[in-house]
Each structure stands twice: as structure tokens, then as C-alpha cells.
Specification:
Largest sheet: none
Distance between the termini: 59 Å
Oligomer: single chain
Radius of gyration: 29 Å
Strand content: under 5%
Order of helices and strands: HHHHHHH
Helix content: over 70%
Shape: elongated
Length: about 170
């Protein structure tokens, strides 16, 4: 039984060398090549434990090709569809009412904050400005900016939580 295992290991090593060359022709990064080879081999071993693999070398190369394809798909940039390609769908009357209710509740909750706290929150969340930039502009420390943000978020969560539960 050990002789059979040794011959399988030798065949597996030759598969691995051929697989490495196959992947290296398609992927430039040497570390990525090793990762893909290792992943393909691990998947072959896992499959062989569950069922009989008639052509292990062909199956190994198919696994590697699929992993390479997945890698390339993940590397492609996602291009959002513009309105000319995918026109926006108008929300239903109920959706518009929910949005209006949420907007009104948000505005009311923001009005309950101190002017400085509200200003910091709006600058950070709506104007997308950094903590350091806000601190410099308002003449306060970055730590104070964080305290205002924490207070605002906690207050808004308290005031709007019931709306989030209703929408879920």
C-alpha cells in the first residue's frame, strides 16, 4: 500500500510542476502563482476525498483555470451603469413616503443637536471632510471632533432606530 502511495506522490509532484508552468504563463506575480497552485491542489485533494477522480491531472488543470478566471473577474473594474444605459426606477408612493418620513425625522434629530455638534456631523458625514480638516477649520482638537461625532451618532441612532426597524 505504501508503494502505491509513493507512486501517487510522484505523479502528484509531476502534476504540480506542470501546473506551476501552466499558471505562470497566465499570471505574472510569482507569489500569486504559488497561491493558485496550492489552492488548486488543495481543492483536488478535497474532491478526491469525497469522490473518485478519474482524470486527476485534467481535473487539477480545470480547477486552476477556474481559479485564474475568478482572479481576473475580481480584478476587473466595476463600471456603474449610467442613466442612459439603465434608467432609474421611480420609487413607489409608499417608498417615497418612507423616504420623506426618514428625511423629516433626520432633520428634526439634527436640529436637536448643539450647533457645533451638528456642524461637525454635517461636515464629516455629508461633506465627507476629514477629522483633521474639520478640527483646523473650527479651531478645535481632532479629539473634540470625534467626541462631537460620537455624540451625534448616538443621538441620531436613538431618534431614528424605530424607523430602521420598521424598514427592515
Amino acid at each position: 500500500m505504501q508503494a502505491a502511495s509513493e507512486s501517487e506522490d510522484g505523479a502528484f509532484d509531476s502534476y504540480r510542476a506542470a501546473l506551476r508552468a501552466f499558471v505562470a504563463r497566465r499570471v505574472d506575480d510569482a507569489a500569486e502563482v504559488e497561491d493558485l497552485v496550492q489552492e488548486a491542489c488543495a481543492r483536488l485533494v478535497a474532491s478526491a476525498r469525497e469522490r473518485t477522480v478519474d482524470e486527476p491531472q485534467a481535473y487539477l488543470f480545470r480547477i486552476a483555470a477556474n481559479l485564474i478566471a475568478d482572479r481576473h473577474r475580481r480584478a476587473l473594474p466595476v463600471v456603474p451603469l449610467g442613466p442612459e444605459i439603465h434608467p432609474p426606477v421611480r420609487p413607489s408612493q409608499e417608498d417615497r413616503r418612507c423616504v420623506a418620513d426618514l428625511q423629516a425625522a433626520l432633520e428634526a434629530a439634527l436640529e436637536e443637536l448643539s450647533p457645533r455638534c451638528r456642524e461637525v456631523f454635517v461636515m464629516r458625514r455629508f461633506d465627507e471632510r476629514g477629522t483633521g480638516e474639520i478640527a483646523r477649520e473650527l479651531g478645535i482638537s481632532p479629539r473634540m471632533v470625534q467626541k462631537h461625532l460620537n455624540h451625534a451618532v448616538a443621538h441620531l441612532y436613538d431618534r431614528l432606530a424605530h424607523l430602521m426597524e420598521r424598514g427592515a
